[in-house]
Design a protein that fits this description.
Helices cover 27% and strands 27% of the residues. By secondary structure, it is an alpha/beta fold. The protein has four domains: 212 residues, Rossmann fold, CATH 3.40.50; 85 residues, Translation factors (Elongation Factor Tu (Ef-tu), domain 3, Beta Barrel), CATH 2.40.30.10; 106 residues, Translation factors (Elongation Factor Tu (Ef-tu), domain 3), CATH 2.40.30; 180 residues, P-loop containing nucleotide triphosphate hydrolases (Rossmann fold), CATH 3.40.50.300. Strand 8 and strand 9 form a beta hairpin.
Length: 640
């Protein structure tokens, strides 16, 4: 076995003190987290494999396996294919590409390293963003034969967005262009022209050949014209101190630790600043202040905790704090708002739709959220801001966000942990986006709920009914509006107070500026849901007849009102029947291409999964279904 450089050899003379000294030396070393990125087949995995091999961190059986795999999967002829050390998935080895993010550890006498090997293919850009999110430096590889590519620019831009301030431009495969200085200089000039807008704190370009180790561990005679350091020398010396412990104190509460009645602590990881017993802290949302009594860990109490420490704080006073809250320095509290502006990297096949509700996870808090306005998306080649209504896979945009509840946050440039978030699809639980907060929208702090003396209960009591939304959903021609109209006529005849919001009628006024794209459909339902909420607050029985094709928006409308105030009525009519009826001739126009984005033809309809009422219109006349709905309301006490 090849032991790590500097480790004590396993001989008879080895002593316990030797091992202790070695471990103590390792503790003193600084740690650099960096990633390799760039376009596909630029040599990222080969470079990492070369670093692992040359730093003598490979076991003999690993080397034997590497030699065997190189013959089976390798792309370097008789030479060892170092990329196979990192490309662990069978699919990666067969295709000769990196798909997943691979993390590797190595160390030298001067520093410890954790390196993330990230994919180059565009469809795996989200994996690259994952690797960049906790890295301090990026090694961007460029194939000397190909120069700067679109994916090179994309990765450089995402690295900048994700707070990486140190860049190494590794012009790889320099041996395949005869170690040409002019080729190297041209590539560097091309990249610099693009990267000067990204604001990196340090940037260095190195010509290298990962396959042959040129300028990787030490300066090589093959490039006498290059006067800079070798890659490893630079990685060992670059100063990437993030100085989080010098910033204001931040501890997002992970959980409230109550092992018994005599102990109540707040557990989490310090993500900024430092804290000692006796220091004053504030609950970010409420502003309530108290003092730290103890800093508790599994290894005993600490005299001080700094950024990166996982601890439990006990406080001198009882404060109302739970998971998702943030304990902070009282003189430098984070912003607290339910609206902010942020950069957004979209990571899902399904497009991002403004107005659609997602779950937003920031630190330990998770709240409903939506993009209230997409300001622009970014052309990664030119960094130009482009007008857009949606984002698709791997797009980067800048948007305003609206949250279901206020959150404590910092700008991402000041604190990654307090300014970085992910968006989660509410139905699949998949991560669909990653965001970096720019600033809170100050206008949000100037808008407050006005207390009113007459409330919803009083208005409903005056009308002798319980307010509710009857949400009719189904395909065009299913009979929604017909049945909703009959229900309202019946309720009015009984003296009930109602209002009917019909899809066509609303588009003549409130929503006349909206088209029929998916993004416009989402905004259509968002506005109608808000209008329905106001009618419920007025104590009315409001009937909403809209195709409302997406489950996400129907769920959003449901959550706008209280429990028991939303009844989904699925008017279940087969599309063949709807097409036969076609009262407005819309299906024929859609099939001929005269109407685009028509639900059921070239735009999807997502069937309700748990509607309170499901009506099959083929089973009887509309009048009978209307009577059944009224009976449902009466049985459940909505009619007084």
């Amino acid at each position: 076995m090849n032991a790590p450089e500097g480790a004590p050899r396993a001989t008879d003379n080895s002593t316990k003190s030797d091992l202790q000294k070695f471990l103590a030396d390792q503790e003193k070393k600084t740690l650099l987290r960096f990633l390799t990125c760039g376009s596909v087949d630029d040599g990222k995995s080969t470079l990492i494999g070369r670093l692992l091999y040359d730093t003598k961190l490979l076991f003999e059986d690993t080397l034997a396996s590497l030699e065997k795999d190189s013959k089976k999967f390798g792309t370097t002829g008789e030479d060892i294919d170092f990329a196979l050390l990192v490309d662990g998935l069978e699919a990666e080895r067969e295709q000769g590409i990196t798909i997943d993010v691979a993390y590797r550890f190595f160390a030298t006498d001067k520093r410890k390293f954790i390196v993330a090997d990230t994919p180059g293919h565009e469809q795996y850009t989200r994996n690259m963003a994952t690797g960049a999110s906790n890295s301090e430096l990026a090694v961007i590889l460029i194939d000397a034969r190909k120069g700067v590519l679109t994916q090179t620019r994309r990765h450089a831009y995402i690295a900048s967005l994700l707070g990486i301030r140190h860049i190494v431009l590794a012009v790889n495969k320099i041996d395949l262009v005869d170690y040409s200085q002019s080729v190297f200089d041209g590539i560097v000039a091309d990249f610099n022209a693009f990267a000067e807008k990204l604001g990196f704190a340090s940037q260095i370009a190195i010509p290298l050949s990962a396959r042959y180790g040129v300028n990787v561990m030490a300066k090589s005679p093959e490039t006498p014209w290059y006067q800079g350091p070798a890659l490893l020398n630079h990685l060992e010396s670059v100063d990437v101190d993030t100085a989080l412990e010098k910033g204001p104190f931040r501890l997002p509460v992970q959980w409230v630790n109550r092992p018994n009645l005599d102990f109540r602590g707040f557990s989490g990881t310090v993500v900024g600043g430092r804290i000692k017993p006796g220091d004053t802290v504030a609950v970010a949302k409420s502003g309530r202040t108290t003092k730290v009594a103890r800093i508790v860990t599994m290894d005993g109490d600490m005299k001080e905790a700094v950024a990166g420490d996982a601890v439990t704080l006990t406080l001198t006073d009882e404060v109302d704090t739970s998971r998702g809250d943030v304990l902070s320095a009282p003189e430098a509290r984070p912003d607290v708002s339910d609206q902010f502006a942020a950069h957004l990297l979209w990571m899902a096949e399904e497009e991002m739709l403004p107005g659609r509700q997602y779950l937003l996870k920031l630190a330990t808090a998770t709240v409903p959220a939506s993009v209230s306005e997409l300001k622009h998306k970014v052309d990664v080649n030119t960094l130009e801001h482009l007008a857009a209504k949606t984002l698709t896979l791997n797009d980067v945009g800048y948007a305003n966000f609206s949250l279901g509840a206020p959150l404590a946050f910092d700008a991402y440039r000041d604190n990654r942990d307090m300014g970085g978030f992910i968006l989660i699809d509410r139905f699949t639980n998949a991560t669909v986006g990653a965001g970096m907060i720019d600033f809170g929208l100050r206008r949000a702090t100037n808008v407050h709920w006005q207390a009113l003396d007459v409330n919803k209960e009083a208005r409903a009591r005056m009308k002798g009914q319980k307010p509710v939304v009857l949400w009719f959903t189904g395909l065009s021609g299913s009979g929604k509006s017909t049945i909703a109209n009959l229900v309202e006529k019946s309720l009015t005849a009984e003296g009930k107070h109602t209002y009917l919001l019909d899809g066509d009628n609303v588009r003549h006024g409130l929503n006349k500026d909206l088209g029929f794209t998916d993004a416009d459909r989402v905004e259509n339902i968002r506005r109608v849901g808000e209008a329905a909420r106001l009618f419920v607050d007025a104590g009315l029985i409001v009937l909403v007849s809209f195709i409302s094709p997406f489950r996400s928006e129907r769920r959003m409308a449901r959550e706008l009102v209280g429990k028991g105030e939303f009844v989904e009525v699925f008017v279940d009519t087969p599309i063949e029947v709807c097409m036969q009826r076609d009262p407005k001739g819309l299906y024929e126009k859609a099939k001929s291409g005269a109407i685009k984005n028509f639900t059921g033809i070239d735009s999807p309809y997502e069937t309700p999964e748990q509607a309170e009422l499901a009506i099959k219109t083929v089973d009887g006349p509309a009048e009978r279904h209307a009577q059944a709905i009224v009976a449902y309301l009466r049985e459940r006490g909505y009619l007084g």
